[in-house]
Amino acid sequence: MQLGVLSRTYHLSQIILENNNSEEDVIKYYSSFKDFFSSEVIPNVLFIDDTLINFDSIKKEIRQVKKKSSEVQLVAISNANDIDYADALIDCGFDFYLLNNDFFFKRLQKCLNSVRHNFFQLHASTEISDIIKGDSEEIKKVFEVIKKASTTKINVNITGETGTGKELVAQAIHKQSTRNQNPFIAVNIAAIPKDLIESELFGHEEGAFTGATKRRLGKFEEAKNGTLFLDEIGELSLDLQTKLLRVLQENEVTRIGSNEVIKTDIRLVTATHKNLRNEVFENKFREDLYYRLLGLPLNIPPLRERKGDILNLAELFIEEACIYNKITPIKKLHADAQRKLVTYHFPGNVRQLKSLIELSVIISDFKTIRASDLLIENEEIEDISLKKERTLEEYNIEIIEYFLKKYKGKVNFVSDKLEMSKSKIYKLIQEKKLSKY
Ligand SMILES: Nc1ncnc2c1ncn2[C@@H]1O[C@H](COP(=O)(O)OP(=O)(O)OP(=O)(O)O)[C@@H](O)[C@H]1O
């Protein structure tokens, strides 16, 4: 990475050089803005000493720096322990503010780590296979649909169990599309309190409701010319479904408390682990919105149905975890661990595999990860139930009992998870077929 230091003293450049932990970085020193603008080299990060910060001209200079390269990250270094001063610099366009006191070196390291992280994010590959790992036939079919979606503006509806990589696929569609220079905004409807969803999506004006102390842009506006990913769309209430449908038909939004109509140009990608068609049958989801959102349907199979990806992904996660934890050499998977992984059914899919591996990297004592290092929760329950011989109905009852226990008797949750009607579960309870309830 190219580091630039804009300072009247060469000394600052020396400090940064001495405390920088990456040998691949190159430092370039400039004594004035004029010197910087006349240089051919464009650094990835520019440190500016506060002897060179002049509030009358700094905004204009920063605009010129960003014009020269929109990617350059700006760091102000100052002796002033003054929050208002730091705020004013950030308002002028600086990305970081570093106080030059006893803790400077520590802060410099942290700042350089953030700068590097931003740099790699910006330059991350847009190739689908670099974003989504796996080479099973099933995942290759997903890649094909992503490619088709990327070349058009069509809405995409992604289905798949939890942790299968729905958000990752939405990101890949965005990165592959012509919108990739514009924002990718992800919203998880299930994670937002119900009474805040409308304002989160469509924004509000100051004073529009109690607590609305400032104007706030909604996610539709934030995603301007980019991609809006609405995860768990099945959780949207019927009245908000009506509002969403209107926004999609008119391509315009109105903030709560405003009459101003704002044009929107976004690609919508939605995801759900629910069967939306069933929700339509049960009158929980508007049919017209369902067809509007459906666009190009993309289903990501659960990990247990693409077993060919398990070991590839496991090796990738081992490598990432070893690098992150500075463990060398990179650990290997013992044959017994490989067997355990490929025979497990992964209810939490890739997310579960990733956390399982991250933990095994830490707890394994040797260079090899053994089966005993893979701590799979409820492993015995699964094993025992498959070893005994039973009828299909007995299996079903055992599964429902297992989920009722897991979700503390909440029939709503169990019916969602098993995609089974609540009435059927209540009937089994009434008939006392479920021994524990
Ligand atoms: N094919 C893959 N290659 C690499 N990482 C993956 C892959 N699939 C999933 N992951 C990782 O697994 C985790 C879960 O993925 P993601 O959040 O996209 O799943 P999701 O289906 O959106 O989950 P949820 O339904 O719970 O929101 C993330 O850390 C993601 O990076």
Which features would summarize this protein structure in a list?
single chain, 437 residues, alpha/beta, Rossmann fold, Helicase, Ruva Protein, domain 3, 4 domains, five-stranded parallel sheet, 20 helices, 14% strand, globular, binds adenosine-5'-triphosphate
Folded structure, characterized:
By secondary structure, this protein is an alpha/beta fold. The protein folds into four domains: 2-122, Response regulator (Rossmann fold), CATH 3.40.50.2300; 136-299, P-loop containing nucleotide triphosphate hydrolases (Rossmann fold, 3-Layer(aba) Sandwich); 303-377, Helicase, Ruva Protein, domain 3 (Orthogonal Bundle); 390-430. The protein has helices at 10-19, 33-38, 58-68, 83-92, 104-122, 128-131, 137-150, 166-176, 197-202, 219-222, 238-250, 276-281, 287-294, 310-324, 335-343, 349-363, 379-387, 392-406, 411-418, 422-430, and strands spanning 2-6, 26-30, 45-49, 73-78, 96-99, 156-159, 184-188, 203-204, 216-217, 227-231, 252-253, 262-263, 267-272, 296-299, 332-333, 368-369. Strand 3, helix 3 (58-68) and strand 4 (73-78) form a beta-alpha-beta unit. The radius of gyration is 27 Å and the shape is globular. The model is unreliable at 380-384 (pLDDT under 50). It binds adenosine-5'-triphosphate (ATP). Residues 132-134, 160, 162-168, 231, 273, 313, 350-351, 354 line the site of adenosine-5'-triphosphate.
